[in-house]
Design brief:
A four-stranded mixed β-sheet has the order 1-2-4-3, covered by helices on one side. It has about 110 residues and is of the alpha+beta class.
């Protein structure tokens, strides 16, 4: 699993989205199938704008079949409906389930 931090200090929404697309390209070149995006919790410091914008972009990519799906870190639960319907969920490393970090988004490519 490849991890990228999209909410670095002074990061703008535009640069975070640009980094999102760059990261997806890089991960595809390396033949990795899972991408972990650190977007912050979305509560303070403007990270809510980044998290919302990244989720909107991921929704568009999913609707265009450019990614298989994504899930927020805190939704990694076998009883969660979103997790149950996630395609290729078996590719997510087991150690990610222990964290359940709401500041992360796991993307299946």
């Amino acid at each position: 699993m490849y991890t990228v931090d999209l909410h670095l200090k002074k990061e703008t929404v535009d640069s975070a989205i640009s980094n999102l697309y760059s990261s997806i390209k890089l991960v595809r070149k390396t033949k990795e199938r899972v991408l972990c995006l650190i977007v912050g919790y979305g509560s303070t410091g403007g990270t809510h704008k980044i998290k919302t914008a990244v989720e909107n972009e991921l929704n568009q990519l999913k609707s265009k079949n450019q990614i298989k799906g994504y899930i927020n870190g805190n939704e990694l639960d076998i009883f969660n409906v979103k997790y149950q319907t996630l395609k290729n969920k078996e590719l997510i490393p087991k150690d990610v389930f222990n964290k359940k970090n709401s500041g992360e988004i796991i993307v299946i490519l």
